[in-house]
Amino acid sequence: MSTINCIINSELIPISKASVSVSDLGLQRGYGIFDYFKILDNTPVFLDDHLNRFYRSAESMRLKLKYSDAELKDQIHELMNINKMPDSGIKLTLTGGDSADGFSLGSPNLIITQSPLPSYQSKGYGTGIKIVTHQHQRQMPAVKSIDYLMAVWLQPFIKQHNAQDVLYHNNNLITECPRANIFIVTKEEKVLTPSINVLNGIIRGKVLSLEVPFSITEVAITLDNVYDAKEIFMTSTTKNILPIVQIDNHQVGDGTPGRITQKIAESLLMVINKNPSSSSIMVS
């Protein structure tokens, strides 16, 4: 098996030898950000959207990224060229850096890793999945933080309920899943997604801008709205569109992926295949 490489602070090294200091705030306090995008047929998907969000998250977290957009793309290109993984995912992580007192910000460490795409294709695309709900509000929701404490802690809870994911809600308003945005289709066939206290997912944004024959809107959505929905689906970089056919003890619609969900999935796939924002990096 060939060696998989990563990049730490612009240095290319085998991932088996990668390390950061034990005094890094990412380890000491869970302080850092990340972003993740797909590579399909040696071409990054929606790269500029992901990098823009990465820079916004860094600014919000007061982490100074010393590489320009062009320099960051050069490093990504270098990693893709040496790893030769035409269909994969690349993760950018920016930590709080080494801290003398375990609390003050240091010089951020930039880590770029590449790995095979997760295998979601056999986990509910045709039949849909079940999710459960839990009261929680993620800190600094507009930031793609490395803090997934609640999401990891809830894994036994999710499994106990024979579910595949969890939907957060706060003050009776739903927000998001740990790694995905949520959309509902009302009985009037309006497509809605939560408007506040959520991460602006890249695929979420693409869905909001789709040219389809029904309205797609950001609004406040209650738990009752969700339980009464005709269709529900989640969106993410790895999952694209994943239908939800049960939430808690409530069946969604007739218990199968709905017509509008399928139409949106088809329309999104056309956008991904065109991939207008990915031409800045390609591997020959």
Describe the structure in your own words:
With 284 residues, this protein is α+β, with helices and mostly antiparallel strands. The protein folds into 2 domains: 5-116, D-amino Acid Aminotransferase, Chain A, domain 1 (2-Layer Sandwich); 129-273, D-amino Acid Aminotransferase, Chain A, domain 2. The protein contains 8 helices and 15 strands. The strands form 2 sheets. Strands 7, 8, 9, 10, 11, 12, 13, 14 and 15 form a 9-stranded mixed sheet that branches. A hairpin with a 2-residue loop joins strand 14 (240-247) and strand 15 (250-251). The two termini are 22 Å apart.
The sequence of SSEs as H and E is EEHEEHHEEEHHEEEEHEHEEEH
Could you say how many structural domains there are in total?
2
Tally of DSSP β-strands: 15
CATH superfamily of the largest domain: D-amino Acid Aminotransferase, subunit A, domain 2
Inertia-based shape:
globular
CATH topology of the largest domain: D-amino Acid Aminotransferase, Chain A, domain 2
Q: Give a quick account of the main beta sheet: strands, pairing sense, barrel closure.
A: 9 strands, mixed
Q: Distance N terminus to C terminus?
A: 22 Å
β-strand percent reads 25-35%
- Poorly predicted regions are none
Query: Helix content range of the residues, please?
Result: 25-40%
Helix segment tally? 8
The SS-based structural class is: alpha+beta
Give the averaged pLDDT, no decimals: 93
CATH architecture annotation name of the largest domain: Alpha-Beta Barrel
